[in-house]
Write a structure and sequence with these properties.
Number of helices: 3
Strand content: over 45%
Order of helices and strands: HHEEEEEEHEEEEEE
Strand order of the largest sheet: 7-8-9-10-11-1-2-3-4-5-6-12
Helix content: 10-25%
Distance between the termini: 51 Å
Radius of gyration: 17 Å
Shape: globular
Length: about 200
Amino acid sequence: LLQAQTALSARDLAARIDHHYNSLHSLSVHFVQHYDGMGAHRKEEGVLLLRKPGRMRWSYTDPDGQLFILDGKYAYFYTPGQSEAQRVPEKQLNDLRSPLRFLLGHTELEKEMADLRATRAGNGDYELSGVPKGMEQRVSELKIEAAPDGTIRTMSIVETDGVTNSFDLSGELGNAPAPDGAFVFTAPPGVHIVNGQP
């Protein structure tokens, strides 16, 4: 009986996650990204800075110096040593970092995900899973592990071709300093900005 009282429904868990992130103006969090699929395994990490509305900065420490910036209109990708940085209009962005934008938005997970389910994780956390609406052709499942207060610990995106992208998040700092300049991409000397593929 006690467990039945403490177990959260998918709706309750989604509402707690929504409430936690919708109340923030900005957010800084350390991430470790794992990519598995097509015979490859990659691990990358760094710090993600988000600010409403629609600003993101992924500063990588591994690979060191790699950058992904979303300034509200364009996304910029840059890898040190390359002679070009790619620019893609936000509307054409087809990148699996973009689901993490809902960490700072006007999220309503219950409306944005189909087939929503919640299960207990072994450590007292919960797992929320479903399929993001509008991404059914590409994503077969989005899994979010969250603490009972709605803080997201991990997010895993399983694509329809079997590729899995997972993000482990730690050291979350709500309403972190997020100056305008953090979301402006300035090309290093000798680096040209080119229009990239969506």
